[in-house]
Design brief:
Layout: E1 7-11, H1 18-25, E2 31-33, E3 50-51, E4 54-55, H2 56-61, H3 63-73, E5 76-81, H4 87-93, E6 99-105, H5 108-121, H6 141-164, E7 170-173, H7 180-190, H8 218-226, H9 230-233, E8 251-252, E9 258-260, H10 268-279, H11 291-299, E10 305-310, H12 313-325, H13 331-341, H14 356-374, H15 389-397, E11 404-407, H16 411-421, H17 441-444, H18 447-456, H19 458-464
Parallel strand pairs: 1-5, 1-6, 2-5, 6-7, 9-10, 10-11
Antiparallel strand pairs: 3-4, 8-9
Helix pairs in contact: 14-18
């Protein structure tokens, strides 16, 4: 019989044991795993910007060329793939029956805590237990729920891709990585001799203590987990391809029956402040919803209204560029934009000599990147921060269709009307205050930026009737 597979992909996430499993796979005859070959921040492993003669720019231009090089180097090559890796590669390998699929999973709470500890200690791998660094971390419920939803969405995409093409995957749990019978079963699945007599023991488990001993606020963690319906933990979104509704990010009044659906890049902070003041409750707004808890909120508030706020696409892209790309967040995306798309993008502490002309050039480059990103021509995910507002609202509509779509340029009057509709005096809401960008859009605004924004967000211009900014 011929070889069953030509290559393999190991679907996993951070801190699921994928490094350990990769080391064991590399002990199998003819098998070679090339690490996180399509991580947007590096190639293969942290710090590497080239693999098999292909640079990050070359990978961005033609990702499958790297796969072709892998096939030249091993009889059965493969790589690890996480939710934020190059989506173009996923769409090529997922329907390919000659590509074996391995799905590695771990208790998501264990993964979350492990990642937080690694970030705090700077220790991402351990080969000698004498050098183990210990830390206790603060559990953040909103952060955990957001991570859980990302994982569910990605797993749903993979599962549906396998189902719709009649394929199956080899599923392995974190606890199975040390089980030699399971590992040899994986070898048999791949079609290579099952000759392992022991798992790879180079890497050591970094945090073997019980979960309660690894967090600073175990009681708060237990309370947060109790809000998550256990029957939904393993439930994967069924609709595909689309964005999920993003339920954990919704904000709701405890007293006032208003539900705010923030659209990333929009006036999130100012509207949240207005709603909190209108609600007037010392506990603040209700957030961190699951689909079950949001249904309960709705049932308990007959006549509730759901709303979202639209921002002009150019202004929204500018806010995202200023806060997310030039700011302290999105370091992997920022590095990829430098390496593969030619943007300068100094770090937050490296702004000397970075004036309005340089800022404008990078912002224009970002708009051009977004256009290519929406068309599936880049190696980076379409992040909610720069997804079209129409795409975000389509995801929302499957669960919480907004009763009102407000406009930022008429926001004060429209919020006042909304308050009156639910029987509250509008004057109770706080004044709208949005964080100022480091460089106002009016300083750099011109026709070229207008055209680039329309090219990147054409669907929003068409769907919502946006014209020229101001």
């Amino acid at each position: 019989m011929g070889q069953r597979f030509d290559m393999f992909v190991l679907f996993a996430e951070m801190r699921t044991g994928s490094n350990h499993l990769e080391a064991t796979l590399n002990r199998l005859e003819g098998v070679r795993c090339f690490g996180e070959a399509f991580n947007p921040a590096f190639i293969g492993q942290a710090g590497r910007t080239e693999m098999l003669g292909i640079t990050m720019a070359g990978r961005a231009a033609e990702p499958m060329a790297l796969v072709a090089r892998m096939r030249q180097k091993a009889r059965l090559p493969g790589f690890r793939f996480f939710h934020d890796h190059d989506p173009r590669v996923l769409e090529r390998v997922l329907p390919d029956p000659r590509c074996a699929k391995i799905v590695l999973t771990r208790n998501p709470l264990e993964s979350y805590v492990s990642r937080k500890i690694a970030s705090a200690t700077g220790q991402w791998k351990l080969t000698d237990t004498a050098h183990r660094r210990r830390a206790r971390i603060a559990f953040d419920a909103d952060e955990f729920i957001e991570m859980l939803e990302r994982q569910r969405s990605f797993q749903s995409h993979v599962l549906r891709g396998l189902q719709s093409t009649g394929q199956t995957a080899f599923c392995i749990g974190y606890e199975d990585i040390g089980d030699i019978a399971v590992l040899n079963g994986l070898a048999a699945f791949l079609g290579v001799p099952p000759t392992l007599d022991a798992p790879d023991r180079t890497l050591k488990r970094q945090n073997p203590e019980p979960l309660a001993e690894k967090v600073l606020n175990p009681e708060e963690m237990e309370q947060a987990l109790a809000r998550i319906d256990p029957f939904e933990l393993g439930k994967l979104p069924t609709a595909e391809p689309r964005r999920g509704p993003g339920v954990p990010g919704y904000l709701a009044g405890r007293r006032v029956p208003l539900l705010f659906v923030p659209l990333r890049g929009g006036p999130e902070a100012s509207v949240a402040g207005w709603l909190a003041a209108l609600d007037g409750m010392p506990e603040g707004l209700q957030s961190g919803f699951t689909q079950k808890s949001l249904r309960d909120w709705k049932r308990n508030r007959p006549g509730h209204l759901c709303f979202a706020v639209l921002r002009h696409p150019l202004a929204r892209a500018h806010a995202v560029f200023d806060r997310c790309i030039l700011g302290a967040g999105y370091p992997g995306i920022r590095q990829a934009l430098r390496e593969a798309h030619g943007l300068a993008l100094p770090g937050p502490e490296q702004r000397s000599g970075y004036g309005p002309a340089e800022y404008r050039a990078d912002f224009l480059g970002f708009l051009r990147f977004v256009k290519a990103n929406h068309a599936g021509k880049t190696g980076l995910r379409v992040d909610p921060a720069w997804a079209t507002q129409s795409a975000l609202l389509r995801g929302v509509a499957d669960f919480a269709t907004p009763d009102h779509l407000l406009r930022e340029d008429r926001l004060e009057d429209q919020l006042a009307t909304l308050a009156r509709l639910v029987g509250v005096a509008p004057g109770q809401g706080a004044a709208l205050q949005e964080p100022e960008p480091s460089l106002p859009l009016a300083t750099i605004h011109d026709d070229e930026l207008e055209s680039a924004a329309r090219a990147a967000f054409g669907r929003d211009y068409m769907a919502f009737g946006f014209g020229r900014w101001r």
